UniProtKB/TrEMBL annotation:
Keywords: Coiled coil, Phosphoprotein
Record PANTHER family: CYCLIC DI-GMP PHOSPHODIESTERASE TM_0186-RELATED
GO BP: any one term: phosphorelay signal transduction system
Residue span, HD-GYP domain: 244-437
Name of the protein: HDIG domain-containing protein
UniProt xrefs under Gene3D superfamilies: 3.40.50.2300, Hypothetical protein af1432
Keyword tRNA-binding carried by entry: no
Coiled-coil residue spans: 177-218
Cited InterPro entries: CheY-like_superfamily, Cyclic_di-GMP/3'3'-cGAMP_PDE, HD/PDEase_dom, HD_GYP_dom, HDIG_dom, Sig_transdc_resp-reg_receiver
Source domain of life: Bacteria
UniProt keyword annotation of Coiled coil present: yes
Length: 437
């Protein structure tokens, strides 16, 4: 076929991970394909036999019937062997590639995949018909790899196509790896400069202390002057430490600004939530360390929404269950972005927990009670109050009174009682209001 009629093209997904399956369904449905989904190879094979698709995308590691076994079953079925099969997997060992060739797969794409690359492979195989062969007439290739004998049955065209897709996938991953290494190198250089500045500050402090000890012995008369000089220098060192702290805060602000550029609506929500969360923390008299962590986490608590399509985030109408399931992944995505950064506060844990609920009904882990950090409990209340009292693309603002009614009604079950009491106090008695949007 020279032109693909996507509206009439059926693609079957065989994937046991609900998150990966949903992600792939959204990618394909945005391109107007018809999508069928199965959670294992056995279910997928039954669906193929009942209603043959135009193309199959299958994971390899699945229960009941693996992707290799599913692919072999399709290619050995005279009614199905013409259907292109794309093997989608996180496996990268050469032995896995050999198994993919033996299963007569037509393409091999590794996770995490590039959406554009996968789409191009789908279109290529839809426009390239597969000439079927009698399974008994397919030639065998016998060879030895790492001391083990292998016998592979695959048509020359399938073998060439599969190996070519592996090569293209490797080239793409090498490019992405190079880009990542360059970004990491830039971050490393910045961190080295910060560490060097701190080491220099410590060196200056040590040299000054050594000098003071010597001068106490040698020049008692000049002691007062030297003490004053020591205080002045210590002040400079404290200033340097403040600059280092400011640099760290700048890093967090830069992350928030990245989201601001992509989605100003979410960024403004984060800023307003921080204002209320800090006011609640002050009312509860939490420690300075927890307050600093709360403030920093609040600035970027929705950073994970950078992975959610803007069409879903800013959708004016009611979102579907599928779209909401995808939105709920943002706390885990935020945790993955932040977990390897060495902050002096548990920023990543606060971010992943800010949608957990006291009774265990939250997400993503269903934590409850003391399993949830206090900072995350505060953000949860501030987040709900801001969201309900502010305008949203899918509804007008419900108002502050409605928001307070919500947290008071669910106090002790969904929300922490002490946090709710502090929130009501800062709004009702102390006159807290959100900045203008």
């Amino acid at each position: 076929m020279s032109v693909i009629n996507k509206a009439e093209t059926k693609i079957l997904i065989a994937e046991d991970s609900p998150t990966q399956s949903l992600k792939l369904q959204i990618l394909l449905e945005e391109q107007k394909y018809q999508v069928m989904a199965a959670s294992n190879g056995k279910e997928a094979l039954e669906m193929c036999q009942a209603d043959p698709p135009n193309l199959i995308i299958t994971d390899i590691e699945m229960p009941e019937m693996s992707g290799y076994e599913f692919c072999e079953a399709v290619k050995n079925d005279p009614e199905l062997m013409h259907i292109p099969v794309i093997l989608l997997t996180s496996l990268s060992d050469p032995v896995d590639v050999i198994r993919g060739v033996s299963a007569r797969g037509d393409c091999y794409v590794t996770k995490p995949y590039n959406g554009y690359f996968l789409s191009s492979k789908i279109e290529h195989h839809l426009m390239t018909p597969i000439v079927g062969l009698d399974p008994d007439a397919i030639p065998s290739l016998d060879f030895t790899f790492k001391g083990k004998e292998y016998s592979v049955k695959s048509t020359p065209g399938q073998m060439l196509g599969l190996l070519l897709s592996i090569y293209e996938d490797s080239v793409l991953r090498n490019y992405e790896l190079t880009q990542t290494e360059e970004a990491l190198e830039e971050i490393t250089q910045k961190l080295e400069k910060k560490v060097s500045a701190q080491e220099e500050a410590e060196k200056q402090l040590k040299e000054l202390n050594d000098s003071l000890e010597a001068k106490v012995v040698e020049r008692t008369v000049a002691l007062e002057m030297e003490i004053l000089e020591h205080k002045a220098t210590t002040g400079k060192l404290r200033s340097n430490l403040k600059m280092l702290r400011k640099a760290m805060e700048g890093t967090i602000t830069a992350m928030a600004n990245t989201l601001d550029i992509r989605d100003p609506y979410t960024a403004d929500h984060q800023r307003r939530v921080v204002k209320l969360a800090v006011a609640i923390g002050e009312e509860m008299d939490i420690s300075k360390g927890k307050m600093d962590g709360l403030r920093m986490a609040g600035v970027i608590h929705d950073i994970g929404k950078i992975a959610i399509p803007l069409a879903i985030l800013n959708k004016p109408g009611k979102i579907t269950d599928t779209e909401f399931t995808l939105i709920k992944t943002h706390s885990e995505v935020g945790y993955d972005i932040l977990k390897k950064v060495e902050f002096p506060w548990p920023i990543a844990d606060i971010v992943i927990q800010h949608h957990e609920r006291l009774d265990g009904s939250g997400y993503p882990k269903g934590l409850s009670g003391d399993e949830i950090l206090l900072e995350a409990k505060i953000l949860a209340v501030a987040d709900v109050v801001e969201a309900m009292s502010s305008h949203r693309p899918y509804r007008p603002a419900l108002g502050m009174d409605k928001a307070l009614e919500e947290i008071i009604t669910k106090k002790g079950t969904i929300f922490d009682p002490a946090v709710v009491d502090a929130c009501v106090k800062v709004i009702k008695r102390k006159g807290f209001t959100f900045p203008e949007q």
